[in-house]
């Protein structure tokens, strides 16, 4: 689709579903790196660049070209296939304020409708140029923020009273833990565990104490980033403060070493003081903040 935007620049808008082909992926990575250098911001995480070539992940990118040059994009991901999308985008600094962002957003919304999206979250790196003003102008409002934390991979000693091992058949125990920790429904938990089992880059572990399954964590390999990501870390309320969460984190730091990764990262809501304290105690430190936006009720 071609359209004229401000300053009479003709822009071609196209949609590419995951997995994105190598040529387009290379162009996207070049644009993201060059824009990040100019803005002094890392955009790879909010754009989920690690996933755009993954056959196991559902999503799409909307790309904008001025002639042969890629000048803007939006990346949207439905991580576990439940029609719940997270998306973000950027425009080359040389092509900003020409209506390209609006054109990308229009194409994004059309794609979300076609794909039956039931919910969406728009992501922006804190302090990224023009992001907050753009979201507000498009009738999006701030919903919550997460801090991204980083730690070096290192062999750690895990409490001998806590056994951390790969998930096998602890469905009932994990369902209760995850429903309690995150407020998920039983169907949502089943979908998540099934997604983890089918994706070779995701690995689910459980923590046992005194013969009972009392915690869980999932690790996600991001080989291109040389990083192991932590997600869905949870413990039973009655064992919190007993070192189970600490043991799970230390296990993952060691698991990163065993799998050849240098860095471990995770996201946590910025107002979760208890979790932040735990992560910092184990050696994690903040590297960035991501703000999440939703459409204002009047626009839904």
What's this, in brief?
The protein is of the alpha+beta class and 300 residues long. The protein contains seven helices and 13 strands.
What would the keywords be for this entry?
Aminopeptidase; 13-stranded mixed β-sheet; alpha+beta; about 30% helix; 2 domains; about 300 residues
Protein architecture, described:
- By secondary structure, this protein is of the alpha+beta class.
- The chain contains seven helices and 13 strands.
- Helix 4 packs across helix 5.
- The radius of gyration is 20 Å and the shape is elongated.
What is the first-to-last residue Cα distance?
A: 26 Å
- Quaternary status: single chain
Query: Which class best fits the helix and strand makeup?
Result: alpha+beta
The backbone outline, from C-alpha atoms, is elongated
CATH architecture of the largest domain, by name, is 3-Layer(aba) Sandwich
Beta-strand percentage range: 35-45%
Task: Chart the SSEs and their pairings.
Elements: E1 2-5, E2 9-17, H1 22-39, E3 58-66, E4 69-78, E5 84-91, H2 100-114, E6 119-125, H3 131-137, E7 140-152, E8 162-166, H4 171-182, H5 186-198, E9 202-209, E10 212-222, E11 227-235, H6 244-258, E12 263-269, H7 273-282, E13 285-295
Parallel strand pairs: 5-6, 11-12
Antiparallel strand pairs: 1-2, 2-3, 3-4, 4-5, 6-13, 7-12, 7-13, 8-9, 9-10, 10-11
Helix pairs in contact: 4-5
């Amino acid at each position: 689709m071609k359209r004229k935007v401000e300053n009479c620049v003709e822009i071609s808008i196209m949609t590419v579903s995951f997995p994105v082909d190598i040529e387009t992926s290379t162009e996207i990575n070049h644009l993201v790196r060059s824009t990040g250098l100019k803005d002094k911001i890392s955009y790879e995480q909010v754009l989920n660049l690690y996933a755009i070539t993954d056959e196991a992940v559902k999503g799409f990118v909307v790309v904008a070209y001025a002639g042969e040059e890629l000048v803007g994009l939006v990346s949207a991901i439905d991580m576990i296939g439940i029609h719940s999308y997270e998306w973000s985008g950027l425009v080359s600094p040389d092509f900003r304020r020409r209506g390209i962002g609006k054109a990308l957003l229009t194409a994004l919304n059309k794609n979300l409708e076609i794909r039956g999206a039931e919910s969406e979250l728009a992501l922006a790196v804190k302090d990224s140029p023009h992001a907050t003003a753009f979201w507000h102008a498009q009738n999006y409002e701030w919903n919550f923020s997460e801090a991204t934390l980083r730690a070096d991979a290192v062999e750690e000693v895990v409490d001998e009273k806590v056994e951390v091992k790969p998930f096998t058949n602890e469905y009932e125990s994990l369902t209760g833990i995850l429903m309690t920790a995150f407020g998920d429904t039983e169907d949502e938990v089943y979908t998540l565990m099934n997604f983890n089992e089918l994706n070779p880059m995701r690995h689910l572990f459980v923590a046992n104490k005194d013969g009972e399954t009392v915690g869980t964590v999932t690790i996600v390999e991001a080989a291109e980033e040389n990083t192991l990501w932590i997600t869905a870390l949870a413990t039973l309320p009655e064992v919190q403060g007993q070192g189970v969460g600490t043991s799970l984190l230390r296990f993952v730091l060691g698991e990163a070493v065993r799998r050849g990764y240098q860095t471990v990262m995770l996201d946590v809501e910025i107002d979760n003081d208890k979790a932040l304290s735990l992560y910092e105690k184990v050696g994690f430190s903040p590297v960035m903040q991501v703000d999440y936006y939703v459409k204002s009720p009047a626009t839904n």
